[in-house]
Prior knowledge:
By secondary structure, this protein is α/β, with parallel strands linked by helices. Helices cover 29% and strands 26% of the residues.
Amino acid sequence: xxxxxxxxxxxxxxxxxxxxxxxxxxxxxxxxxxxxxxxxxxxxxxxxxxxxxxxxxxxxxxxxxxxxxxxxxxxxxxxxxxxxxxxxxxxxxxxxxxxxxxxxxxxxxxxxxxxxxxxxxxxxxxxxxxxxxxxxxxxxxxxxxxxxxxxxxxxxxxxxxxxxxxxxxxxxxxxxxxxxxxxxxxxxxxxxxxxxxxxxxxxxxxxxxxxxxxxxxxxxxxxxxxxxxxxxxxxxx
Length: 237
């Protein structure tokens, strides 16, 4: 049966967090009152040549996982450099009508995908194109996460700041294509899709746990240029 959603996880650093991440995927609740779906998960090891020990560790984690509602695929990407290129390559292998992004150091709550599917199904005649959720921070820093818009997200909300947590993002397949711009590939995609008139929605529940550690994007703000990105898109209006 064709999966409803393809989950994409590029992996360069962070193998030490992958097992916890994998557990959260395999425990996803995929049934509720007549709603039922399946998933596939593509983990792409990039930047490690023939894969070496990292690829072996990922395969060992895959073999330990029991996924009754999904299938886990591991692929080595020896000639792919960077997260953006890895995501775009993984899409070529995936088959789901929806694309979910999950960083290897983050985890999902058990009903994450289910609540997103229910939001899409219950939107009536409104075609939702991107669905996010709220998140909490854990690891070296613990908090309830950023204040995000809930429900339908306006253009004003998007211009104010990135409204979709990366590891919460669920995107229609035909819209999922990342570009390496200003170190903010996810926010750049939302701005590009906003200009196309796409519809964004946030499930107002903390369904993603974003890990904060020394190598995480949370601590890599020097590589991200929000002002530069916004100016880039303003020039294209």
